[in-house]
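queue> pop job 88
queue> type: inverse folding (structure -> sequence)
queue> payload:
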């Protein structure tokens, strides 16, 4: 997310922030009209011809707003999977339909549990073994503590279509899982940054013993710890986004490091934010609980920090 496109990314981040500030629950047509769902769709198919680096900017802003929308499942994952299919008229037509907003697609990784944005999707692509398949499915909403996410259990029936992946299927599926992990890490980074900003603003105005609580050393140290955790998260997430956008042999390593650290750090940051807000931080009206629940779900979605650290440890055996 750094380099020659910094200015463009800053503008994209500003536009996304403004849109989500007006409508934090942006529905699919709003996302399509903004051009976000077609960011990685080729221009000749109605998309922007951009890369995952631009998608990552949107993921971060969605996390910052704790937005309840279907961007993760029906844009980030769906476009990633369809782009990984063997070239065909069917693939191009589906990409064009996604970019225009005419079709909303969801992606289910086996065992097809906790599938983002499957409920109400027009088509569901299931990654099963070495193939991407479509089938007659039953979608059952899966309630979770985080009300900003819409997850479901997908129960497949008779297979109706089989799609083939480009190149080695296992390599492509690993890349798709890395992509999902990094997208969630971007979301968690946005969650953490939003909570640090809200906390700093609050401790500047909250008075205790005739002075702002932000002037107390313990509060300063807590905010500094939050800032350091976010700075480390940003470095790891930036490296992972670059790896996903451009490919490379160490993409899975970068993705595992970003997912395990950033998603765990976000839970810690929001927890500190709740403490520093005092009693009001535990109330329904404060809104801090929304970010805490989102951060907690992100931590386990597409793999827990412990599972990624276990994978990373294999490098040293």
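queue> result:
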């Amino acid at each position: 997310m750094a380099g020659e496109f910094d200015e463009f990314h800053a503008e994209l981040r500003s536009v996304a922030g403004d849109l989500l500030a007006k409508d934090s629950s942006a529905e699919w047509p709003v996302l399509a009209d903004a051009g976000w769902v077609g960011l990685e769709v080729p221009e000749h198919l109605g998309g922007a011809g951009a890369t995952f680096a631009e998608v990552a900017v949107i993921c971060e802003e969605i996390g910052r707003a704790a937005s309840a929308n279907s961007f993760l499942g029906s844009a980030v994952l769906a476009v990633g999977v369809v782009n990984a299919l063997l070239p065909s008229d069917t693939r191009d037509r589906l990409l064009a339909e996604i970019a225009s907003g005419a079709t909303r697609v969801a992606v289910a990784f086996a065992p097809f549990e906790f599938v983002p944005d499957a409920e109400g999707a027009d088509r569901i692509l299931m990654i099963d073994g070495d193939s991407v398949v479509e089938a007659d499915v039953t979608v059952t909403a899966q309630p979770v503590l985080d009300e900003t996410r819409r997850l479901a259990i997908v129960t497949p029936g008779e297979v109706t279509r089989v799609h083939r992946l480009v190149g080695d299927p296992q390599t492509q599926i690993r890349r798709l899982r890395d992509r999902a992990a990094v997208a969630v890490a971007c979301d968690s980074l946005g969650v953490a940054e939003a909570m640090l900003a809200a906390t700093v603003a609050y401790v500047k105005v909250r008075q205790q013993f005739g002075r702002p609580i932000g002037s107390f050393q313990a509060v300063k140290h807590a905010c500094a710890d939050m800032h350091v955790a976010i700075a480390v998260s940003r470095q790891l997430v930036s490296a992972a986004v670059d790896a996903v956008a451009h490919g490379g042999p160490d993409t899975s390593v970068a993705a595992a490091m970003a997912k395990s650290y950033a998603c765990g750090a976000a839970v810690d940051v929001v927890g500190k934010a709740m403490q520093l807000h005092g009693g009001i931080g535990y109330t329904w009206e404060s809104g801090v609980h929304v970010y805490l629940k989102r951060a907690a779900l992100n931590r386990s979605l597409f793999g827990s920090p412990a599972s990624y650290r276990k994978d990373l440890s294999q490098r040293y055996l």
